[in-house]
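[agent] plan:
  1. take the single chain provided in the ticket
  2. run structure prediction with default settings
  3. attach structure tokens to the ticket
  4. add a short note for the reviewer (M.T.)
[agent] executing step 1
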Amino acid sequence: MVIMAIQMLARGGETPMGQYKRSWFLVIIGMVFATMGIFSCIVPGILTDGIRILIGFLNIIGGGVLLIGLYLPMHDTGGPVAVPPVFKKLRVTQTMLNGVAIVFGITMLIPGLAPGLVIAGILVINGLLLFVLAGILRKMP
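[agent] step 2 finished; step 3 output follows
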């Protein structure tokens, strides 16, 4: 949470609704989140439930919005278009990443739904998918 807040302070924010340049509003939001994260590291247990719920909602909403944006056409292309294989792999990887984010968000909102080892596995899968995504992006024209 602290790292994400510092990124928001430094370069603006990338949200499910788009990317925003750094502004005073984002700086204030980043400072609030950084403060919450730092406080929860120093005094554990007080903000844990609130942060867990916030992370759960952010993952579910972010994954859902990005999935909808991935499959909901923005404009009419005028008919079928040949899609290169690299773009197909990209779409599959993004779908899997967004699905993993939603599953992680659900496990955060419903404590006890999955044991800690399963949640750790979900996060490992997320990390591996990010490496796959980076590899695909390097191959794109």
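[agent] step 4 note for reviewer: Strands lie at 13-15, 18-20.
[agent] ticket updated
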